[in-house]
Amino acid sequence: MDASHAHRHPVFCTVVPPHLLDKIAQSEDTRRADAAQRTLEQDSLLRTRRRITTVRGIAPASAAPVPDEPRRTIYDVQHRTRLPGKKVRGEGEAASKDATVNRAYAGLGATYELFLKGFGRHSIDDSGLALDASVHYGEDYNNAFWDGRQMVFGDGDGDLFLDFTVSVDVIGHELTHGVTQYTANLEYHGQSGALNESMSDVFGSLIKQYSLDQTAEDADWLIGAGLLGPNVGGVALRSMKAPGTAYDDDELGKDPQPATMDGYVDTARDNGGVHINSGIPNHAFYLVATELGGKAWERAGRIWYDTLTGGELASDADFKDFARLSVAAAVARYGDGGAEHQALQKAWSTVGLG
Questions:
Q1: Can you tell me the distance from the alpha carbon of 23 to that of 254, in angstroms, rounded to the nearest whole number?
Q2: Is residue 116 within 8 Å of residue 129, measured between CB atoms?
Q3: Cis omega before residue 84 (within 30°)?
């Protein structure tokens, strides 16, 4: 893929969707509302900054041999917003006294390992890109994001949201936006944007399952489990097993994700519902993975990776395009009429994309 295509579409991706923060910003609890509003304002500023980064482009990868080990650096922003912050841990260095630093370091490593061991990919760009992350971003910042160059984690407000490094799938989710950026570069609106979000949920979940050595049957299929505060009515940000059931709370509202095309949400908000309608391809992946059984990254994950990186997935692809190409990828790798092919057909039919 040429460099101009790889960086054509500016994308700023956060794990907590704006529609959820919008709901909290209307809270009667002033502290909660203010924290959500500050997060929304900061995210808006960062989206503008991200567009400038995209126009400037990213330096091409070195032609040097690609290592089989990650190159991680963790920075502490110390509750400011100027990135990257003060370096606090580098690759191979001793653990920090700060648990947030260590979780970020471990999460970057888990993501690197799954992509390398599972799919033969060397880092985000497949050329050994260094993995940088900044922690303790802003004041009560209720989000985590990939800015096109590095990971950034807020500490949460300690009330509705906890430290954003507590869920390894959230770390994997955001880094996978980088993988998408360097491969299919799915446009961040409408169905292509929902596919972009779904890719991050799929591989974020696989990274958690890989790090815990779980089978598809053992996995919780939740994105952001442990991230919500103890008084929130919910278990996670999203559920791939049962979209629409992750939370139902007075402050957060009810999880709006549909599981099938019957519930598809046509909206102008959230870039055309990218965090909402991603529940449909998410659920399709869950159905394929559990139908095939075993370790989900070995077959279902391989099919999704082949589809994302195979060169046929257009940047403006819709759900039907992805469904068709995933079936083709399954046939190419496993043959026609096998368990993989059948699982794909059954899953896409179930979600209304047969």
A1: 10
A2: no
A3: yes
Give 222's DSSP letter: E
Catalytically annotated residues: 174, 275
Tokens 């179930």, located at residue: 350
Contact between residue 75 and residue 134 where contact means Cβ atoms under 8 Å apart: yes
Q: Does the predicted model carry a pTM greater than 0.90?
A: yes
Determine the longest span between alpha carbons in the chain, in angstroms.
Answer: 58
pLDDT above 70: residue 69: yes
Q: Report d(CA 11, CA 327) in Å as an integer.
A: 28
Q: Is the peptide bond before 67 cis (omega within 30 degrees of 0)?
A: no
Only one residue has tokens 């998410």, namely: 282
Tokens 């990274």 belong to which residue?
A: 207
Look at residue 249 and give its three-state secondary structure: strand
Burial bucket for residue 250 (CB in 10 Å: 0-12, 13-18, 19+): exposed
Predicted confidence (pLDDT) at residue 78 exceeds the cutoff of 90: yes
Q: Is the dihedral of CA 231, 172, 79, 56 positive or negative?
A: negative
